[in-house]
Amino acid sequence: MVQEDLDPEELARRVALSVAADSDEVGALVGRTLIGDGVWDYRFASAIKGYEGWQWSVTLYRDEDADTWTVDESSLVPTDAALQPPAWVPWKDRLLPSDLSVTDAMGTDPDDPRLTGGYKPVQAKPQNSEVQQTPGDNEEGQKALTSAETDGSDQQTDGAVFRLVDRSGDEKDVHEQEADDQVSFGAQTSSDDLDEAVDRFALTRRHLMTPEARSATAKRWYEGQHGPKSLSTRTAKGKVCETCGFMIPLAGDLGTMFGVCANRWSPDDGRVVSLDHGCGEHSEIEPQEESHLWVQSQPAYDDLHIDVVRQKPREERPEVELMEQMQSEDGSED
């Protein structure tokens, strides 16, 4: 729509009134802003019930050569004081573990921040032999490997070098991974100690949990229903899982706080529990002694009172009445 001789403010108001359902819904002019290249944004206060804090926005274009105004668009726009719905949250971020059934599977994202690459054993040449370049090895890793083989230090691993494997499939030398993943073996670590650690903690898995993920897991477990703040712990009378014979310890840093309950009579059987958790089925609790006294139970019914229940009237059936009358006359029934 092009207007030549009309005031731009009046033009913008007419446009807003044509869009509004009622003339009272368009308030006073709030302001106008030059967007650029002759485009102006006119704002009017909104008087629509439920849209407090919103404004009518009418965009006009000024053609200086033709001395005309053109209407571009009009809409309702919110301000900082407007009442708006909460920000949209993706469905995956709204889900809770309790929302999933046993047949649902979420899967693991390739860039899940809870995981880091595991360790992959790579066979190396014996000491004092020439090191050959292998696909996927970088120069820094080869330099570190060559240095470990030729200087006779305690960093040798008897022909085996463990390398960190990231999610992309690339390999990094074990000496490089300290700065990236904060997991390292000391310089004095022997081959037997290294093999024992790798075997004990299953470090050759493709992915391992990061320290941050383990810390978040410990916090979630400790504050859950199998931690020290549960109702069963308060009724356990000081008998905690740490001293229970049915508690199976965990390996690694989580073992300093948690174990697995193996008492079949415990409600926590097969679950990870904190060491200061309790359930009342501690191995040191003796069973209750059986009483030989007769315990009088409450009567199952009250025979001191009679409840009069009105009987439902019998259905009138002439043939039944006739048979009863004949039997009464014969004296077969009283």
UniProtKB/TrEMBL annotation:
Residues 102-158, 311-334 are annotated as: Disordered. Residues 125-136, 144-158, 325-334 have a biased composition (Polar residues). Transmembrane segments: none annotated. Residues 311-320 have a biased composition (Basic and acidic residues). It comes from the Bacteria. InterPro entries: DUF3027. This is DUF3027 domain-containing protein.
